[in-house]
Amino acid sequence: MALGNLAAEPENHDSMVELGGIDALILLLRQGCCVEQELDSGRYAAFALSNLAANANHRKRLVDEGVVEPLVALACSDSPDVQRQALAALRGICIAPEHRPTVVKLGILDPLVLMARSDNMDILREVAAALNCLSSTEENKAE
Hints:
This protein is mainly alpha-helical. It has eleven helices and no strands. The model has no long low-confidence stretch (mean pLDDT 89).
């Protein structure tokens, strides 16, 4: 949670990235995806990544360092809080049009379809925002 709180402040983003924060967050994501007892770790890592993804200077690095696949896996969790945080991070990455096709190719559509069935209004807002973002790229319209 501490990394998420640090990432909430844009002035901390450069330091976090330069000091290896993305690698640490990916490790937490992978633990959160695979070990039920570590689900909170994954949620907090996704929260931090959603804050970093809000910074246009770091989106490419997030994608290049491999955050998309573990975020997609985390979005398939049964926990609405975990789903929402993972989707918020993915949506943040998708703000940049150049990353939208990559995120689709790496599997975001499956969890979006699953989450679209939710009764949770926060989840439905995230799904709608992500689909809106993804659908505005010609390459994704064929998917």
